[in-house]
């Protein structure tokens, strides 16, 4: 984003107008201006406005993601065209790619799905995120590759939805 002097000038003018309005005394306010709304006469009854219609209860907060659940987490070294793992496994070689397939169900708008790989001592071995919008079943795959061989040992794949841990799956590298 670049600096635009016209935007700065417009902001300064707007700020000074707001500040000028804040410093007015009630005696300075022109009450003779015609607003188009005439107050009722002193002896005329005031008719109250009808009650406002409540917001429809859709079960969700406006603008918030609705429920998105993790149905399953499947690990393997490759995924097919349909995004399913072709050969599920929980044991990988040191040079294998690690594909974490996350199946979700529910409805969400721009939900952040994150997968973190943790090595046996809790050290993070990888992290990937993807934003998804869905109204039903969805599969999202995360592929982790290491330029160096993966250290042998036990790992955990943690799945997070919008910053909340939803599922874990353990695996080993031999």
Overall residue-averaged pLDDT value: 78
Described by strand count, sense and barrel closure, the largest sheet is: 5 strands, mixed
CATH class division of the domain at 68-173? Mainly Beta
- Looking at the overall shape, the CATH architecture of the domain at 68-173 is Sandwich
Radius of gyration: 29 Å
Global shape: globular
User: Can you count the beta strands?
Assistant: 8
Give the low-confidence spans: 1-24, 52-65
User: Number of helical segments?
Assistant: 1
CATH superfamily of the domain at 68-173: Immunoglobulins
Briefly note the structural class of the backbone.
mainly beta
Helix content: 10-25%
The largest sheet has its strands arranged as 2-8-7-4-5
Instruction: State the end-to-end distance.
Output: 49 Å
Which topology of the domain at 68-173 does CATH recognise? Immunoglobulin-like
Order of helices and strands: HEEEEEEEE
Strand percent estimate = 35-45%
Region (Disordered): 29-67
Keywords: Signal
Signal peptide: 1-20
Biased composition (Polar residues): 57-67
Helices, strands, pairings?
Elements (H helix, E strand, L loop, with lengths): L4 H18 L45 E9 L14 E2 L5 E9 L1 E12 L4 E11 L3 E7 L8 E9 L2 E10 L1
């Amino acid at each position: 984003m670049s600096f635009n002097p016209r935007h700065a000038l417009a902001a300064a003018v707007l700020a000074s107008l707001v500040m000028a309005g804040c410093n007015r005394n009630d005696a300075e306010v022109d009450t003779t201006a015609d607003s188009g709304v005439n107050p009722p006469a002193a002896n005329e009854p005031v008719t109250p406005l009808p009650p406002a219609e409540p917001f429809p209860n859709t079960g969700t907060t406006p603008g918030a993601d609705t429920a998105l659940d993790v149905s399953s987490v499947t690990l393997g070294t490759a995924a097919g065209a349909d995004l399913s793992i072709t050969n599920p496994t929980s044991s990988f070689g040191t040079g294998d790619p690690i594909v974490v397939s996350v199946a979700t169900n529910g409805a969400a708008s721009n939900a952040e799905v994150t997968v973190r790989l943790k090595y046996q001592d809790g050290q993070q071995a990888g992290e990937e995120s993807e934003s998804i919008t869905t109204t039903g079943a969805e599969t999202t795959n995360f592929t982790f590759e290491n330029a160096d061989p993966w250290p042998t040992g036990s790992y955990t794949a943690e799945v997070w939805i919008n910053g909340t841990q939803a599922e874990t799956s353990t695996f080993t590298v031999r």
